[in-house]
Automatic annotation (TrEMBL):
Protein name: Seminal fluid protein CSSFP037
PANTHER family per the UniProt record, alphabetical: AT26814P-RELATED, POLYSERASE-RELATED
Family listed: Belongs to the peptidase S1 family.
InterPro entries recorded: Peptidase_S1 (IPR050430), Peptidase_S1_PA (IPR009003), Peptidase_S1_PA_chymotrypsin (IPR043504), Peptidase_S1A (IPR001314), Trypsin_dom (IPR001254), TRYPSIN_HIS (IPR018114), TRYPSIN_SER (IPR033116)
SUPFAM superfamilies: Trypsin-like serine proteases
Gene Ontology terms: biological process: proteolysis
CDD domains listed in its UniProt record: Tryp_SPc
Amino acid sequence: MKLSHTFFISLGVFCLSTATTPLPLTEESSARIVNGYAVDISQVPYQASLRRRTVGGWAHMCGAVVVSARGVLTAAHCGVSYVDQPTSVAAAVGSSQRNSGGTSYTISRFLIHELYSTMTLEHDIALAITSQNIAFDRTVASVSIAPVGMTIPPNAEALVTGFGRIATGDVASSVLLAAQVKIVDQTSCLKAYLRIAAITPGMICAIGTSPLRDACQGDSGGPLVYDNRLIGIVSFGEGCADINYPGVYTRVSEYESWIYQKLTEI
């Protein structure tokens, strides 16, 4: 069975759209936060935006997360098309605005997980290396990575942030949005996606209710944080903020050793 999904490249609600091949990384095919609230970058200083060079300047394409002075984590599907042209992408930090403000650092390399699958979206994680050190201040800081084996109880509240769309097919947010979502137990998530995608141990699911809250196009690669630790990276979903399909994230704790190994290669 071919996977049907929507990548979450902009903030809003996690969404999936039907596609049999990987979607191009554009604002239209990225995830966003649905039913979120505006948040200042100083409250989530680890949030970054991957912006691609366009004829008209630089445009947001994916979220990312600052994890060191030279690296930002993102989804593999955000960087796989730019492995051979990394300098056409920049990591913007320290801004609550989608396409302006903050400081931008050119990407020198995209390190895609070696087992990443474009068909199943397993191992949907990548490290983007910046060409120079990121300067930290009150609006720019790294986030702690969830350690291997970290247990996150079902219904625990986590925070997802991003610049994606505010609803399926809607416009993207011009400012940084945040939403509280609850962790969905693995068995329930597996059953929800039974006919659509395989939910593996390297994935974690979450959704917000009353009102429905989720990531959406444009949020892909962005952070899911619990207890001040990065536990997830926005990956995919079936539509946005659909009560029947929680948003799916890459489970960061499963990749702790991979992340630190890649950071030593900088």
